[in-house]
Amino acid sequence: MSQMKLISHIDNIPSTPGKFKMEKSPYIHRLRFHSSLAKLTFWSFVFLGLILVFFFRSTTSSSPIPSDLSRTYSWGGLAWEKRVRVSARIRASNGLLVLVTGAAGFVGTHVSAALKSRGDGVLGLDNFNDYYDTSLKRARQALLERSGVFIIEGDINDIALLTKLFEVVPFTHVMHLAAQAGVRYAMENPSSYVHSNIAGFVSVLEVCKSANPQPAIVWASSSSVYGLNTKVPFLEKDRTDQPASLYAATKKAGEEIAHTYNHIYGLSLTGLRFFTVYGPWGRPDMAYFFFTRDILRGKSIPIFEAADHGTVARDFTYIDDIVKGCLAALDTAEKSTGSGGKKKRSAQLRVYNLGNTSPVPVSNLVSILERLLKVKAKRSIMKLPRNGDVQFTHANISSAQRELGYKPTTDLQTGLKNFVRWYLSYYDSGNKSAQ
Ligand SMILES: NC(=O)c1ccc[n+]([C@@H]2O[C@H](COP(=O)([O-])OP(=O)(O)OC[C@H]3O[C@@H](n4cnc5c(N)ncnc54)[C@H](O)[C@@H]3O)[C@@H](O)[C@H]2O)c1
């Protein structure tokens, strides 16, 4: 009320300085002085308020930093620790104790399930970010839960959480799959790549280097490190200094960071360069997945073409083959050689291509999907955008064959058949809708 009065009083005072006259009455003088001070204060508040409104609107609507990066997760407590221990219980003789990061992801779910089913102790970690439909991640989590794998909800940048996990379970291995995947999303949200693929990887390595005993680490790099390399098939020692996307650059950075932690701290590190992995429970941002969705909806699908009508082809690799490669990499990983943060002797450092050795033009992938779905696709031929995608990928897998016994056995027709069967049953049952 008093403020209202003050405001109405202020309104009666001339605002033009030239009209502001000194009054003789000391009371009126004091009143005028206070009134002008109040007026100044009032307008300052209004101005400040406008600035704050503008600031908050601009930070919430266009901030490149997603809310996920600053999310906090609750963890800890006796019941929580018990679940961690139960999940990590080994049931096979010589079983491994594996922390799987990115366990609610496509590859992470399959790898965790495979490890668990052969009797290894497995604990998952995932931040369930919303890069794609989180209900799919939750469904994968429920699937793992049923086979006895607990996924901790947390971020790989949370060093306190990672340290706690190592206190509760002496992991022998870390299968590091958590990452910001996808090539084009980097233009929308570059910081998420730095957060998960660089800072997050360093956090994982920091904790592993200090753990006693240090675990061996197998982690997902990517075929995208070959970037603009035109020599095919891609061999591990080929140049990888021409990344075509920020995603590729962060994976390349990961390979260099891995070298450093191996060199200084004696961490045993194996990087796996996956080539376009597909299959049931896959990632909705990948072409085979959203082509299926859009063909079924009668929407047109973009088929990219390189310069001079050049074919765009991918070395599609079925998830079960990738899982076998991951398990073989874990099984053949030597122990890390450091302790107390110091290296005792040199440790194993490896990089392998995990591909299928037979690139398939994307248009052939669409033809297979058409046959499986019994629906004709509306193809829209477009120029390959220069924002991250490369024209083709083709793996030379002789190192993985020789040293890991890796031998992909699923052709694209068979793998897509499995995928389509899963897709139809997953999205047709219940009320889930493909986003
Ligand atoms: N799928 C492919 O074709 C392919 C190809 C090459 C490389 N890779 C690599 O393989 C790995 C697995 O890929 P995917 O296809 O399963 O991807 P995905 O996105 O399904 O799985 C990654 C998981 O990591 C989680 N994650 C991301 N950032 C995190 C963080 N900061 N803390 C905790 N969890 C985090 C996500 O929530 C997600 O569940 C990734 O490193 C990816 O870069 C995949």
From TrEMBL:
Its quaternary organisation is: Homodimer.
Whose protein is this, by species? Actinidia chinensis var. chinensis (Chinese soft-hair kiwi)
What Pfam families does UniProt report for this protein, alphabetically?
Epimerase
Q: What is its EC number?
A: 5.1.3.6
Q: What is its main location?
A: Golgi
* Leading EC class: isomerase
Q: Name one GO cellular component term.
A: Golgi cisterna membrane
Membrane-spanning regions, if any?
A: 37-56
The protein here is known as UDP-glucuronate 4-epimerase
Query: Which family does the record claim for this protein?
Result: Belongs to the NAD(P)-dependent epimerase/dehydratase family.
* Keyword check for Transferase: no
SUPFAM superfamilies, from UniProt?
NAD(P)-binding Rossmann-fold domains (SSF51735)
